[in-house]
Amino acid sequence: MNLSQRTRLLTGVLLALVFLLLIGQTASLSRNQALAELQQRSQTNLNRYMLALDQKLDRYRDLPNLLATHSDLVNLLLAPDDPERRRRASVYLRQVNAIIGAADVYLMAADGVTVAASNWLEPRTFIGRNFSFRPYFQDAIQGRPGRYSALGTTSKKRGYYFSYPVQRAGKILGVVVLKIDLHDIEEDWNDPLMDILVTDEDGVVFISTRPDWKFRALKPLSSSEMQRIVGSLRYGDHPIEALEIIERQQRGDGSTLITLMEGERIANQALDGIRARQYLMQSAALPDSGLLVQILANTKVVSEAVFETVTLVAFGYVTLVLLVMFLLTRQKAQRERARFKQQRTEALEENEARIRAIIDNTHAGLITLDSQGRIDSFNTTAEKLFGAREQQLRGEYFSRLLAQQDRPVCWQHITADESQRPAELLIEAHGRREDGSLFPIELIIGQMMVGGVQRFIVTIHDITERKLYEQQLQQAHDELESRVQARTVDLTRANTKLRDEVTQHQKTQNELIQTAKLAVLGQMSAGINHELNQPLTAIRSYADNARAFLQMGKLETAQANLAEIGGLTERMAKIIHPLKEFSRNSSGQPQPVCLKAVRDGAMSIMYGRLDKERANICWPDQLERYYVLGDTVRLEQVLVNLIGNALQAMEARAEKPIEINIEQQGKWLKLHLRDNGPGIPEQELERVFEPFYTTKKAGQGLGLGLSISHRIIESLGGELSAANHPLGGAVFTLTLPVCPAPQPDQTR
Questions:
Q1: Would 313 be classed as within a structural domain?
Q2: Per-residue pLDDT at 269
């Protein structure tokens, strides 16, 4: 073992000894502090529990004294065989027990036989039972109050007994006893790390938060003590065994550290889950009760606190040792780094010489610049391109090697901010030789970091031959351009002619639309004639009657006939007005249109035909809420055409129902119109909107209605489509852009 190894070994042993000493002292101090805190906390809990138990007992302490003065109880003891007095006394005790909330209240004669009880109506009644063996009876029959804790011989429940003698004229006639249940005060304890024990005068656990500790003694009992307890039936047939406390350690603050064996013993004293636990025990006697209250605090929290403190100190110690070792190692590493840096510098110099040889033999000119754009180095190729030596140009600005017009671009790239500068600049420029001549070059300015300092590397290629080739390509391009211009003139003339034809086509289309509207008006002429004939006939009758009534002097009747004539003329105007609106040309400009207005216009135009053919159109409700972007006249024309087609599709039917539904999808509104006809053949669905395509009989139309309607909806920015309904009949769908309802004019 060399000196270095021995030094490291001694250092490790010394650090380990210091560590063990530090951990030992830390564990001792932290344990004492944690035990002191646990003692204070458990003392507080002990005082709180004793106060609650004392208050519980104090509520009932003087009640037997008060009951002993009641006349019903005294009278019963004077005549214990009188059934009426016994009943009255038991009823009274039952009422008292219900009010005060005790477990039982009962009255015993001088011989110890119970003569009245609050549970006199229950199967477990005390009446007739002799409790003279109980110490509380023996104390009271001798003229003093009795206090006693025991397990009930009848109820088998734990209770605390208060007794008091019933006297008259200085003679003790019997004893009144009150039993209370302490189970609830045991259940109220909720600290999982602290257990409460209440023991009697013999040290037997009467109340405990641990069920397996009940009716066990804190110390072994003598044979005389066991006989006395068994003779009084204090704890029934429960065997009184001592808890296995294997160690007691008295502390200076009055508390005791005990080590308790917990678990169960099975046959032949074998151990089943036996384990030792340590508790901090504190005791206090409850005044005038014969009870001793003890609290056992589990020292698990002490062990945890010691462990946490020791862990923290150990971590700190290890951290400190590691930090010192790190600093020592770092110092050693710095020395090694300096030696390595020197070796690397020598290697870099050798590598740089090798790289320089490679750079000098490349076919591209390479120039390195500093952060200000001054030349650092030239390779051999660059010297040949510019006709200058590296020693001549070193320290000069790179812009000296460029033509005047190319310098600003390169200079802006070099001097730009790093966050805004691109990774590299690629341009075509003109190089300037030392003799002043210019030649075309391709220039790439890239960035590099050398020793943490910004540098630039410039790559230069002579593109003289490429420029000559580009000139030849440009000449060929110019010749091709002249040919394209000549061809463009011919195409322009053809395009002008085509636009004229399109204009003529649009004019013809508008004329066809107007013609179709007039054709619809012609189809409705018979119905309009019928509608106008009725009011005209009525007007003639009302006019003749009015003239006759005027001659007879009946002015009121004549005035009524004239009013009817006015109403009939207004009705005729309403019949004619939609026809004028339908026949006129639309403005062609889309605007907000209410679907209710479109419905009313279409129905006023079609009502005569609908009535004649017994057609029934089912419109959706609340059409006044829906507005679309369109043209009222054109939409009326489309609806009239679609309704007319639906009627023709159902002409063989007696009833012609037409169903119209609305569906809004985002910014679009769909109007579905369904008939109950035979539908459209599947192979013909794609042709229904073609001009002059029709499935109607001869003389019923030219096949332009759907084509015109399709073009009208497209011009309004919508869509018209056709399909067959699954239940039969054809469905035409108008898709139109939704428009918000116009706001009323607030200036009126």
A1: no
A2: 44
The burial class, CB within 10 Å (0-12 / 13-18 / 19+), for 495 is exposed
CATH of the domain at 700: 3.30.565.10
pLDDT score of 674: 94
Residue 38 belongs to some domain of the structure: no
464-552 and 595-612 helices, crossing angle to 10°? 60
Q: Is the dihedral angle over the CA atoms 186, 187, 189, 192 positive or is it negative? A: positive
Helix (H, G, I), strand (E, B) or coil at 461: strand
Does residue 669 register a pLDDT over 90?
Answer: yes
Whether 587 shows a pLDDT value over 60: the answer reads: no
Boundary of a domain, candidates 157, 181, 205: 181
Helix axes 464-552, 632-649, angle to 10 degrees: 80
- Structure tokens of 55? 């208050």
175 phi and psi angles, rounded to 5 deg: -135, 135
pLDDT digits (tens, 9 = 90+) for 439-478: 898 888 888 877 678 788 888 888 888 888 888 888 888 8
For the chain, percent of residues with pLDDT exceeding 90: 17
Q: Map 71-90 to HEC letters.
A: HHHHHHHHCCCCHHHHHHHH
Pairing of strands 375-378, 365-369: antiparallel
> Among residues of the chain, what percentage have pLDDT more than 70?
86
Q: Which of 529, 594, 622, 541 is nearest to 740 (CA)?
A: 594
Task: Collect all residues with Cβ–Cβ distance below 8 Å to 239 and sequence separation of at least 6.
Answer: 215
Segment 488-493 shows an average pLDDT of 82
Domain tally, the chain:
4
Diameter over CA atoms, the chain: 156
| 207 inside domain | no
**What is the rounded distance in angstroms from the CA atom of residue 236 to the CA atom of residue 46?**
29
Residue 601 shares a structural domain with residue 698? yes
Confidence of residue 53 (pLDDT cuts 50, 70, 90): confident
90 with 106: CB under 8 angstroms? no
Q: Could you tell me if 73 and 147 lie in one domain? A: yes
Other C-beta atoms lying within 10 Å of the C-beta of residue 312: 12
DSSP code per residue over 279-335 = EEEEEEEETTTTEEEEEEEETHHHHHHHHHHHHHHHHHHHHHHHHHHHHHHHHHHHH
Strand duo 730-737 + 438-450: pairing: unpaired
**Sequence letter at residue 484:** V
Per-range mean pLDDT, top range of 181-190, 551-560, 641-650: 641-650
Task: Write down the pLDDT at residue 266.
Answer: 40
Is the pLDDT higher at 513 or at 456? 456
Computed over every residue of the chain, the mean pLDDT equals: 81
CA distance 85 to 73: 8
Q: Containing domain of residue 134, as a range?
A: 61-181
Among 358, 368, 357, which Cα is nearest to 390's?
A: 368
* Cα separation, 551 vs 558, whole angstroms: 10
Q: Residue 724: is it exposed, middle or buried by C-beta count within 10 angstroms (0-12/13-18/19+)?
A: middle
Q: Are residues 637 and 696 in the same domain?
A: yes
Q: Which among 298, 130, 294, 66 is positioned nearest to 197, based on CA atoms?
A: 294
Q: Which of 110, 104, 163 is nearest to 135 (CA)?
A: 163
Structure tokens at 165: 């003698």
